[in-house]
Amino acid sequence: MEDPICNWTPQLIVELIKNVAWPIVVLVIGVRFRGDVSAAIRKFFTRNTVSEVSATTSGVSAKFVAAKQSSETLETAGSNSVSLPKNMGIEAIRERHLQQKTEFSEDVYSAINTHLSALNISDPEKTELLMRELSLLQCAIRYFDINKVLFRSQFNLFSIMANNAGYIAKEDAHRIFISAKEAVRDGLLEWDWIKYIAYPVSNGLMSEDGDGYKLTPLGKSYVAFMSKNPQLVDDLAKL
Question: Can you tell which superkingdom this protein's organism belongs to (predicted)?
Answer without folding.
Answer: Bacteria
